[in-house]
Design brief:
Helix content: 25-40%
Strand order of the largest sheet: 4-5-7-6
Number of helices: 6
Radius of gyration: 20 Å
Shape: elongated
Strand content: 15-25%
Distance between the termini: 32 Å
Order of helices and strands: HEEEHEEHEHHEEEHE
Structural class: alpha+beta
Length: 167
C-alpha cells in the first residue's frame, strides 16, 4: 500500500541519516528481525467459528499466533477426542501437538522451562501447515485480514535476515 511504502521510505531515510551521523566511528551495525514472514491469502485462513464442535472443546479462545495457536481444553475434553476433532475438521491444514511435547523437544529454547510456562501455552498447539492460518475472533474484535503472517515453523518464518554495515 502507499502507506506501507511511505513508512518504509521514512525508516530508510532516517536509518541512512543515522548511519551518516556515525560514519567513521569504527562501529559494526547489525540489522536483523525477530522472525521471518510468509504470505497467507484469505482463502488459506480458517475462522474457528466455522468449526463449532472444535470451538466447544476449548476453555478459552485460541491465543498465540495465527500460525501456531495455543489451545486450552475444557477439563471434560479428552486429548484423544480433541485430536480426532482436529483431524476431522482441519485435516492436513493443521497439526495438533501436545504442548508438553513442545517443551520436551526444546521449542522454547534450551535449559529447563520456567515453572509457569505450561500454564501459558495450554494443552495443545495447532501448528498450521503450509501457509494456513487460524483465527478465533473475539465478539468485540474488529475483523481484519493480514496477508503477511509470522509465528509458524516454515523455513521462511524461521529464517531471519542479517545485514552487517561497517561505519
Amino acid at each position: 500500500s502507499p502507506q506501507a511504502l511511505a513508512a518504509v521510505d521514512a525508516f530508510a531515510t532516517a536509518f541512512c541519516a543515522w548511519l551518516e551521523q556515525i560514519r567513521g566511528s569504527d562501529t559494526l551495525v547489525l540489522v536483523t528481525a525477530d522472525h521471518g514472514f510468509i504470505d497467507s491469502p484469505v482463502d488459506r485462513s480458517i475462522d474457528l467459528a466455522e468449526h463449532p464442535q472444535l470451538a466447544a472443546m476449548l476453555a478459552q479462545p485460541l491465543c498465540g499466533e495465527q500460525r501456531v495457536a495455543w489451545c486450552y481444553l475444557k477439563p471434560e475434553v479428552s486429548a484423544d477426542d480433541f485430536l480426532r476433532c482436529v483431524a476431522a475438521r482441519l485435516g492436513d491444514r493443521a497439526e495438533a501437538i501436545p504442548c508438553a511435547r513442545l517443551v520436551e523437544e526444546g521449542w522454547f529454547g534450551p535449559g529447563p522451562a520456567h515453572p509457569k510456562l505450561a500454564s501459558r501455552i495450554g494443552d495443545f498447539a495447532l501448528v498450521m501447515q503450509e501457509n494456513w492460518t487460524i483465527k478465533d475472533w473475539l465478539p468485540t474484535e474488529r475483523r481484519y485480514r493480514l496477508l503477511g503472517q509470522h509465528g509458524g515453523v516454515s523455513a521462511l518464518e524461521m529464517q531471519v535476515p542479517l545485514v552487517t554495515i561497517e561505519v
